[in-house]
Amino acid sequence: MKDKIQQIKEDAVSKIEASKTIEDIENVRIAYLGKKSAFNEILKGLKDLSPEEKKEIGPLANQTKKELQHLIDDKKMALESVIDEKKEWIDVTAPGTKHAHGHLHPLSIVQRDIENIFNSMGFEIADGPDIESESYNFDAINMPDDHPGRDMQDTFWISREDGRKKGTGTVMRTQTSGVQVRYMEKHKPPFRIIVPGRVFRNEATDASHEHTFHQFEALVVGDDVSVANFLYIAETFFSEFFGQEIKARLRPSYFPFVEPGFEFDISCTNCGGKGCSTCSQTGWIEVGGAGMVHQNVFEAAGYEKDKYQGFAWGFGLERLAMMKYKINDIRLFHSGDVRFTRQF
Ligand code: PHE
């Protein structure tokens, strides 16, 4: 009987070792420890043995059974872990998951594009403060206190008591034009600059008006700068910016700091000037204000009167971005909605 148990054990151990799958090991368990196994027969037959034999065979059979059970469990675990390893196998050639990385806001993209184009035409970039003195924002550019031109721009006045109160001396700048004088006080002609900047207007908002937006001021001053120079620069800039040939046209208009003053239009970027719904069938789109710098502005900057000529030009950054990317609501830019900004 002892030999038989030993024999079964040896067989079982070699089969356990040879098992390669969970199924194999399960078959070994059924064959050697299952109800119908030879081993079970021995255990069942214990009752028929003599007391001495029982004493000897009983513990041996139980001990062997336990050992086999352990070996089977261990082997099963080992096989399972191999399978798990397989599941976690890393295929280094598989395409990875993309990391989300940051990107520029559409206004930053457009601002950089504009700056690059003007840089390539020899323009420098100048800067001024968002919170501006009343004198730079208005007085110095020929808009003194009683000038009706001030009414053209609804202003946020900075005051300790009431933000709407006029004449506090400090404003949220309504235009980048004030930087003209700031720059000219420190530099002598000839020069070409652009001034990108955030501006503020105390206005109700709608799809084409925001209280906070961005302007680009261009200022070119020298001995004989002319309107023709302005037209050439404008057409070159817009053609480059939109990647198609653009024509510009001027219409007489009024801004206190220029004389003569113009509003200027560019040929419709959608239909090329034939007439479509974007340009209300006119073939032209209004983009900004411009004109020859008023001699009073040169004087305010400390230049000798009638010595220099120059043109100034202002346009809205949001408006250009809207035309370029076909965006129909200016409020989207500052909405903070990532579904919008992620598209750029
Ligand atoms: N500053 C003017 C505005 O905000 C635009 C402008 C700039 C007009 C330069 C003429 C010359 O409306």
Task: Walk me through what this model shows.
This protein is of the alpha+beta class. The chain has helices at 2-18, 22-33, 38-45, 51-87, 106-120, 134-137, 178-186, 227-242, 295-300, 317-325, 338-341, and strands at residues 124-125, 131-133, 170-172, 191-200, 212-222, 248-253, 258-267, 284-293, 309-316. It has 2 domains: 2-86; 106-341, 2-Layer Sandwich (BirA Bifunctional Protein, domain 2), CATH 3.30.930.10. The structure holds phenylalanine.
Bound molecules: phenylalanine
Average pLDDT confidence is: 91
Number of helices: 11
Helix/strand structural class:
alpha+beta
Distance between the termini: 84 Å
Order of helices and strands: HHHHHEEHEHEEHEEEHEHH
Q: What level of helicity do the residues show?
A: 25-40%
Give the name of the CATH superfamily of the largest domain: Bira Bifunctional Protein, Domain 2
Strands in their spatial order, largest beta sheet: 1-4-5-9-8-7-6
What number of domains?
2
Poorly predicted tracts of residues: none
CATH classification class of the largest domain: Alpha Beta
